[in-house]
Amino acid sequence: MENPTILYLVVPCYNEEEVLDKTAGVLRDKMRRLTQAGKISAKSKVLFVNDGSRDRTWQMICAWTKQDRMFAGLCFSKNFGHQSAILAGMMAARKKADAVVTIDADLQQDIEALDQFLQCYEEGCDIVYGVRNDRKTDGFFKKTTAGLFYRLMHLLGSETITNHADYRLMSKKALDALAEFQETNLFLRGLIPTMGFQSDIVYFDVKEREAGKSKYTFKKELTLAMDGITSMSTRPLQLIVILGFFTFLVSLGIFVSCIWDWAHGRVVAGWTTTVASTCLIGGIMLLSQGIIGVYLGKVYMESKGRPRYIVESMILREEDEEDGDVQD
């Protein structure tokens, strides 16, 4: 290949000191093998994004960047979240790369699938999604909630890809298009499939985590699900209208029943019906107001125009420069 692909691996990191050395070694070996095979350029890099870690993650990233020019580092001023870390890495890498692959720091996503990613890219795909073959490594609770999440997202009209997290390849063209999206509430798994570029899917097996614990707690998964639903679909608002219509019909029936009871002198007999209908309507109203409130909160945050993340420092060593860090 005359001009091998300049590939950047973007690796979001949050308190990953237990696994980072292992991860860096595995990624370096894989990148070197791809370079030697002529599949990627020697200018390709691994870009670690430190998402406000409270341990030694950033110090370890700095050490790796000094050891090998293949590594680069980007550090947030505080924790902005996994989606923001992925976006920041992709936006930084698109200035220099032909293609960018995002992968988690725990390397549960099979790094050997990179070969298939690159093959799809060479065949003309601008976006390649990594999709896990199964969820055998997940516990019963996570497996069940994940299945419910994807079914709910599809039901509400979101174009999410089942069992696809954030292991994907995007070309520079796709990244330039993604940069045009300015929303603060990020849900990349739902946003990227709406872009319409030629895409493909690569299936892979999930591995056990090498060390440490998953940073994706149930609370974070629930927040991600809420962001996904409210960022990618207005169908919950439409459901409120439908629910309101049926509630009106039920209320009308109860009203007719109350009039009938009054006409026949059975006022006390309708007390249970009245209480039940009041509770039903009150609960529906509170639920509807809550859903509307979530959407209003999203609009409020978007209207502020705050930055999605703040980069404190970046380390990137160019191949043609002398020893020393380049900080942007």
Identify low-pLDDT runs: 321-328
Number of domains: 2
Assign the structural class, choosing from mainly alpha, mainly beta, alpha/beta, alpha+beta, or little secondary structure.
alpha/beta
Estimate percent helicity.
40-55%
Mean pLDDT: 80
CATH topology of the largest domain: Spore Coat Polysaccharide Biosynthesis Protein SpsA, Chain A
CATH architecture annotation of the largest domain = Alpha-Beta Complex
Write the topology of this structure.
Elements: E1 7-13, H1 20-36, E2 45-50, H2 57-67, E3 71-76, H3 82-93, E4 99-102, H4 114-122, E5 127-132, H5 140-155, E6 164-171, H6 172-178, H7 188-191, E7 199-204, H8 218-232, H9 235-263, H10 271-304, E8 311-315
Parallel strand pairs: 1-2, 1-4, 2-3, 5-7
Antiparallel strand pairs: 3-8, 4-6, 5-6
